User: What shape does this take?
Amino acid sequence: MTTDWTMDDLFLAYAAGRLAEPAELAVATHLAMSPDGRGRVLMLETIGGVLLDDELPAELAPDAMERMLDRLDRDPPPAPAAPPPADTPAPLALYLPQGLRNVQWKKRGPIQEAMLDMADSSHTVRLLKLTPGRRLPTHTHEGYELTVVLEGAFHDETGQYRKGDIAIADRSIEHSPVVDGTSDCICLAVNDAPLRLTGLGRLLNPFIRL
Ligand code: ZN
Assistant: This one.
């Protein structure tokens, strides 16, 4: 099973700054934890840069480079007010300054969750915590879902995901993630549309928000 959206599509959109804030957070958190991911993005950016160079008009305005450098000088990237907590990837710490260890979990059915607030409220952005062996009800997605493993590991019908990995799912994916190993699995999950329970669970759709 594969999604309509590949990891490279996601990385390219990220590199081009075209992702919504919640999706950008998921990718940035993954990249902070994954040297392989960073290497891939660098490669895609290099290829993208080469393609872009080919498309540039033969003559740039003579002061183009100067203006670009000026702009970079004026807009330094925002720095976090304090160093991120050691247990929390830096991009996530911008939204979770208290760190992963101090999250106030709310128990909801088989999972514990903590919602993250962000300026872009078009997505559901939350931390999920599941105990070892826990299986989520089979579901599919009305939009896309990005899941970054922050601690522990899980597997589903598409593969196994360990700390630092990112999983993409969408309406073409029906899955029931299961926590692997002996420690809790904590994930950052970003959805731009509701989930839909399938199998027997579909009868519960009117009552349950997964
Ligand atoms: Zn899902």
